[in-house]
Design goal:
The chain is built from 14 helices and two strands. With 331 residues, the protein is an all-alpha fold. A two-stranded antiparallel ribbon has the order 1-2. The protein has a single domain, classed as Orthogonal Bundle (ABC transporter involved in vitamin B12 uptake, BtuC), CATH 1.10.3470.10. Helix 3 packs parallel to helix 5.
Length: 331
């Protein structure tokens, strides 16, 4: 049991350290150069931003498969706003963020009113958003964005890439939300025992609006970073992105069953994804073989989650259950 707890707490960190050592040796020191490490951080910034929203959704026992397609759609819309509709940079940014929230609220609305599972809702919208991106753009990239817009995705604050700063702020927000607020307790409680949360007075439907709205908001924020980085609206951008985000979140210890996970683990999972991708590129590993490895990494992460969390109940869910029990006893 002690060994199991040790690997549960520190196993993912040991994996990250092992990957650092492995790629440092196999690339003859190229991997650990400061410039390359900053490049890794920039590359994973969009995954990290989305991973916070995905982690929160998964902690409640849900799944959001639409984040990649939503990224492509919002990128095209943002490019068209600036190049054809005459929107300013900040008006475009605000519009994309608001649209992202609206899409997330729509997901929650369908869930609350019809009862379709989140995975099915977002899988359907995964296809719909991608189709809309191609319809609106005519299947071709949208170029001609303002030069200043590229600062968001390509600029630096001192020596730190701006996307990395955005990711760090999002991670801090996610950590604070889950650990320091009552909303965070409810998020864990919903994943552990939704009925107990309901009996304790938590408005589950409103929580779903918040959770899915936040997930899509962060996906839209990542779409802004990507649009600024490539400086064009690509209808196929974000293809496979949801897979990378889910893999990073599961690697970081968020249970697919719900109720378990934390942002520090998610950050480590995100870094592992970035380190693997960058290291394999430096080693000239075939891109298709990298896809094979990523698939097995996800399978191994889910299997580890199933084994390591099998005997455990969720402490934060217990808090909700005990609260509802006390209320019932005093009634």
């Amino acid at each position: 049991m002690k060994m199991q707890n040790f690997f549960k707490r520190f196993g993912i960190i040991l994996v990250l350290i092992a990957l650092f050592v492995f790629f440092s040796i196999t690339t003859k020191g190229t991997f650990i150069k400061p410039g390359n490490l900053l490049n890794v951080a920039r590359q994973v910034s969009m995954i990290g931003i989305c991973a916070v929203g995905m982690a929160i959704v998964m902690i409640t026992g849900g799944m959001d498969l639409s984040v990649g397609s939503l990224q492509g759609l919002l990128g095209v819309l943002g490019a068209l706003m600036m190049t054809r509709a005459g929107f300013s940079i900040w008006a475009t940014v605000l519009s994309i963020l608001l649209l992202g929230i609206l899409f997330g609220l729509f997901h929650a609305f369908v869930f609350n009113t019809v009862g379709i599972p989140p995975m099915i809702i977002t899988l359907a919208m995964y296809t719909a958003y991608r189709g809309l991106a191609y319809v609106i753009s005519g299947g071709v990239p949208v170029f001609g964005l303002p030069e200043d817009f590229s600062t968001i995705g390509q600029g630096y604050l001192w020596f730190i890439p701006i996307p990395v700063i955005i990711m760090a702020l999002v991670m801090i927000f996610g950590w604070f939300l889950l650990t320091k607020t009552s909303t965070g307790k409810y998020i864990y409680g919903i994943g552990g025992n939704e009925e107990a949360c309901r009996l304790s007075g938590v408005n589950i439907k409103n929580m779903r609006y918040f959770i899915f709205g936040l997930s899509s908001f962060l996906a839209s924020l990542a779409s802004i970073v990507l649009l600024s980085r490539v400086n064009s609206g690509q209808p196929r951008s974000g293809t496979g992105f949801e897979f990378e985000v889910i893999t990073a979140v599961v690697l970081g210890g968020v249970s697919i069953k719900g109720g378990v996970g934390n942002i520090s683990g998610v950050l480590v999972g995100v870094l592992i994804m970035g380190v693997m991708k960058n290291g394999f590129v430096l080693m000239n590993v075939n891109e298709y073989f990298q896809m094979v490895l990523q698939g097995f990494v996800l399978l191994a992460a889910v299997g580890f989650d199933m084994v390591i969390n099998r005997p455990n109940k969720l402490s934060k869910a217990r808090v909700i259950e005990e609260s509802s029990t006390r209320k019932a006893e005093t009634a």
